[in-house]
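Changelog note: in this version the structure field was regenerated for every chain. One regenerated record is shown below for reference.
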Amino acid sequence: MFKALLLSEIEGKTTAQIHQLEVTDLPEGEVLVDVAYSSLNYKDGLAVTGTGKIIRSFPMVPGIDFAGTVAESASDKFKPGDEVILTGWGVGERHWGGFAQKARVKADWLIPMPKGLDAKKAMIIGTAGFTAMLCVMTLEEAGLKPDSGKVLVTGAAGGVGSVSVQLLSQRGYHVVAVTGRPESQDYLAALGAKEFIPRAVMARPARPLEAQTWAGAVDVVGGEMLARILAEMEYGGTVAACGLAGGHELNTTVMPFILRNVSLRGVDSVSCPLERRTLAWERLAAELPESAYDTLGCAIALEEVPQAAQDIIAGRIQGRMLVNMAL
């Protein structure tokens, strides 16, 4: 028997309860993993609270990422004892996920633990940190350099934002953080942010073109904020967009694109190809300083996930929250 957080739908409402399950309850897959840690991401918050239409088939074990040790394997890619990471591929949405002490998944969804990481560190990074690295890679592939100018990070106190601030500042960029929580400024300054802008300022409707301000941007918000960011980009600037916390619609014009050569590049962590996925994790292992793991993450028990899910949706969580299956 093992412990799992199971979502059910009762009279149209999502309920989350701890259950004792057996291995035979798990869905099909070539690899059985003893999960050591998972993490709480914004998408997990939507799933557990039923706020978004993340889960369409019940019952479901949520948790879009996990790290642990292979217990059984029917694939020649992994053997018992191997340490592995999983992010994406619809796990925790369409396939039972990481909010359990055991998970059974396809071998192709797993990557070996990079040198320098363990399960705890990997989930302090988690899907949010992995997405942040993909955003940084996207900006640099577009030609952004530390001397290009200021780089904006929205939702800076959240998971993707926090790791983005840390990674960019480590590489010498002048990072400007957008946050709706003034009390988070000391935290963000410790991660390397140089300036701060209130969320309400960036959420105001923008004209087709505003003053050129940003050489690059990581945006997790979308909606009106993304429209303003595009209007404020410098000539040749790039926005890496990876979220829609502020809405999925984008009301903008073509003017930033055709008059300032601005690029808007999407960043997807769910179906990211294996080669790029592996490179991103290797860079995370190499580039995040040891101090980042103490600054970015705190741990909760599986039983605390339902309340924490409400908190992350309400914007009350700072940094990364990992779920320790041993608590």
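Spot check on this record: The chain has a mean pLDDT of 96. The first helix runs from residue 42 to 49.
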